[in-house]
Amino acid sequence: FSFSWQTTFQDGGEEVEDGAVYNVTLKKVQIQQAANKGARWLGGEGDQLPPEHTVRQYETSKIRAIKAGTLEKLVENLLTAFGDADFSYISIFLATYRAFASPRAVLELLLDRFGNLETSSHGEVANLNSLESEMVLRAEIASVLRAWLDQCSEDFREPPDYMCLLKLLDYLKNNMPNSDMESRVQNLLKQFQNQEVEAVDGFCSTSSSDLVDGEELEISNPEEFSSFQDHVVAEQLTYMDVMLFRRVVPYHCLGSIWSQRDKKENKNLAPTVRATITQFNAVTKCVISTILGTRELKIQQRAKIIEKWIHIAHECRILKNFSSLRAIISALQSNSIYRLKTTWMCVSKDILLMYEELSEIFSDHDNYLTSRELLMKEATSKFANLDSSEKENQKKSQKRLQLQKNKGVMQGTVPYLGTFLTDLIMLDTALQDYVEGGLINFEKRRREFEVIAQIKLLQSSCNSYCLIPDQKFIQWFRRQRHLTEEESYRLSREAEAAADTNILSPKSQKSMVKRISTLFLGTDVFTPPKEPPLKSSPVGGSSGESTDSASVSSCEFNHSETEDVCVTPVSSPEDPLKKSSVGSDKGYDSDKGSISSDKGSGSSKGSICDPGPGLDGGSIPSRDSGSVPGAAPKALPVYNRQSEGSCIIRVSMDGLHASVYKSILITNQDRIPDVTQRALLKHNLEPDAVEDYELVQVISEDKELAFPRDANVFYGMNSHVNFDFILRKKA
């Protein structure tokens, strides 16, 4: 017989049970059968038969996916999901449950309520005899536990007592003695205990910048830095980034987890994310220190260092390391570097074009669509896809890429983690944690898992890297003394002042200005901001400032913030060099894992914030993992656009830097008191003080829109400017 089939999906509505709501999808499969021998007798060619000589059968099955439920129902669904054909449920639950429950609570429900045969009310096995019940339940419990240990073993790292791991071990000894699972849990317990001892003894460190005994921080020696080949620097930065990114625990990135980092009791929250941020800051600060750290450098020498970093950034692009690539570009776009007009004039045309093309990867156009598409395109590709509009750069790129291919080693992909952090923060802001009846909104977790799955995919791709650490470079990198923002800006002014009176004659300077201006004719102009004062008010929330303040970054998350910072640059039109994307002396905060604001440069209103201020387009780029067939997700509220009666606004406190803001979801039903109260809560202020504050929308630098006491914010706001608001205490 020959077979052919066609599958269609149909929305089956919802099913409501006590403590749970399910989405139902009907899967209809049409099976067409034909006998080959009969087909030949009827004159059919091959398997082709006239419609009247085929046999069609229809099979309809029901896919039930839990939409919302109590914690008990969500845990019980771990055992029944396969029977309901919700095959991705276990992975989704394990990746996201930390947003609404603890490992201990889930484990106790799983083992004590549903794992105890004597008291189990598990519906699927209720009608089977005792032996069959025991076998089925044991298999289901084992399947869930195996997936938990495979995907989220870090959930059981609870030093020094390891209560969950010991509870699990006790359960296995009683119910699955001498099983592979029992041996595995015992080995995991020993592994955690050994790592704890190593950490206490000082043999293990999570910091990428720790020094060995006797080492001191120092300002970079230009000759020593120049001795490292460009590709070696890129490979070593990639090696460090890969080691840290592979250790990232995906649930640490969830918006509801990450947004709690500013609380005093959560100073050690999400350490794996903080570690990647520390490394990002270290790279940006290293770039600035090597360019500005030596006062005696001549203009051409400083320009050569900038050129070297652009080449290193290009090598990072070849290695598909978007994290260090972005860190380098961000540093070059910081106030203290891109204001070096005379130095940039000495950078060669070809390298400036290369810099321009690398910067365009992180263009904020259409919610950073270029970097998002490139990241997903190259996520699992063997090598980078390099294109250049400049022939010479294209030749060099292809030559370097060919060398990589000749080695026969595939490359992984290291993303800029800020993209995913912001997507998850925006999801957390836009979707409710609980729905009617106090049920946990699991649809929200399915949407979050679409982002988590991308992180996991990229982590898997990093296994393709084959990089060997170069201890000479790593030690050099770790012992670099990073300039503060005040120092870097002061040195920048000194370098530019010296350059203005140095070797460039008025004629040669005019020629260089003309050359650079011609190079970028018809595009935006590289425009450093107006000179800021050396001092500015420190920025921070109620929890205060980091003592380990970051200096430069493309996107950061303020210690007191739950959102990313994205602001626009202030520029002066007379500057000749193009600035492809805005930049500032800010940083991915190494201690807090978030953005610290300008402390020294004072003026910088620019920061490249990869994730952008919102989900432009209404949804997050997603993969199919975790989604239910036929269930199309609704468009999410977005920043800077009103749609379907809702939007997201950004509210900052008067007196603080404009980049310190909170994202707030509003609807067409919200009035001033409602929004003001939410803003106060987000900024960790007393919500009962609504009457003491006024909410205004920023229209321009010198214009604001004030609202009457009970105005509807959604309809009253100006939708033709940024949705940026200020919460100000009334006089």
TrEMBL record:
- A GO cellular component annotation in the UniProt record: plasma membrane
Q: Where do Low complexity bias regions lie?
A: 593-607
Polar residues: bias regions: 544-557
InterPro entries assigned to the protein according to its UniProt record, in alphabetical order: RA_dom (IPR000159), Ras-like_GEF (IPR008937), Ras-like_Gua-exchang_fac_N (IPR000651), Ras_G-nucl-exch_fac_CS (IPR019804), Ras_GEF_dom_sf (IPR023578), RASGEF_cat_dom (IPR001895), RASGEF_cat_dom_sf (IPR036964), Ubiquitin-like_domsf (IPR029071)
Where in this protein does the record put region Disordered? 527-634
MF terms (GO), sorted A to Z: guanyl-nucleotide exchange factor activity
Q: What is this protein called?
A: RGL1 protein
Gene source species = Chloropsis hardwickii
Q: Which GO terms describe its biological process?
A: Ras protein signal transduction
* The keyword Transmembrane appears for this protein: no
User: Could you list the residue ranges that cross the membrane?
Assistant: none
Q: Which UniProt keywords apply?
A: Guanine-nucleotide releasing factor
Gene3D superfamilies in alphabetical order: Phosphatidylinositol 3-kinase Catalytic Subunit, Chain A, domain 1 (3.10.20.90), Ras guanine-nucleotide exchange factors catalytic domain (1.10.840.10), Son of sevenless (SoS) protein Chain: S domain 1 (1.20.870.10)
Q: Which residues form the Ras-GEF domain?
A: 229-498
CDD domains found in the cross-reference section: RasGEF, REM
Ranges of residues in domain N-terminal Ras-GEF? 62-193
Ranges of residues in domain Ras-associating: 645-731
